[in-house]
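Regression report. Comparing outputs from two consecutive submissions.

Submission 1:
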Amino acid sequence: MYVTLVHVQVKPEHLGDFVEATVENHKKSIQEAGNVRFDVLQSADDPCRFIIYEAYESPEDAGAHKGTEHYLKWREAVADWMAAPRTGVVYRGICP
């Protein structure tokens, strides 16, 4: 399993917009071929801090996600709403 944890810090004034756009991206991402999980986590201590947990069966499936219409729409929409550039850390899933 190919997993990426995407760390995002959102500007407070765009919190609602970010959540709305990200929920829409989530709904379409979980329908993609090869998608295992696509979780959106919000920090309990800082509501503007998020982790997006993306798990795909293969690196190719994860790469295909980045070419989807819904991802490209999300990426463009949220770009100016972030307090800092998002970062992604790739992991190899061991369990399950």
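Submission 2:
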Amino acid sequence: MTVLKISAFSDGDTGGNPAGVVLGEQLSTLQEMQTVAAEVGFSETAFAAPEGRGQSWRVRYFSPESEVPFCGHATIALGAALAEKFGSGKYMLRLNDAEISVEGELIEGKYAAALQSPPTWNEALNKAEINATLLLFGYNRSQLDDHIPPARIHAGADHYIIALRSRDDLRSMTYDLDAGRQFMRSRELVTIMFVWQESENIYHARNAFASGGVLEDPATGAAAAAFSGYLRTINRPQGGKIKIIQGEDMGSRSIITAEFGGKPGSSVRISGATRMIG
């Protein structure tokens, strides 16, 4: 089995979030895919196999410890891999619970990709759940940005979103991995996303990913899509396009672009550059 290693949402020749990509004639068994994902050790590995005619693929995603329903950065990496092997274009992807698409193209000698996310939705968190989340990370309510209330957000997978008032507070994010794993899995969360708003259309983010056995993700396309859908719900920002800078505090700066229309719940376009790492 050949595993391609591609960093998605890279910042030029550096940064991004490494993902494994396996292209096969058919998907391996559940145990085989989980074993390979654990051996690769990246936050996610995407397994894809063609189905039917045309450019349609069956896709499953695995973290080192569990299967996840949708992974944005691994989808971007998959789009680059498909473009490199079969040519630039749009590829239809059938996930466990959704059908999406990814477009891959060669730009100035490097591959970039853009995906259309599953539908989005969100719901407010109650006081007790907000307090429990803050306790896990050692934050208090005075550090929250009230313009973006805490919420459960979704775009193919569930996340919590917590907005902070200051960049320093975001930089200081820390938590216990085992406690975080129990917390996220008991709530069926993939990540907990913290953001700080730099300007109208630029956000800085950190994503705790204990549910998959990873302390932090340097770029999280699925959460970016869910967050964008949530911003649309609360009428932010103007113009329907944002940039998310993630991974800076891990030494792996990543750039995610999100574009979305005004229809509530509709798909979000997530795009970024890639670089081959193995």
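Expected: both submissions complete independently.
Actual: both completed, but the second showed a warning that disappeared on reload.
Relevant detail on submission 2: The chain is about 25% helix and 35% strand.
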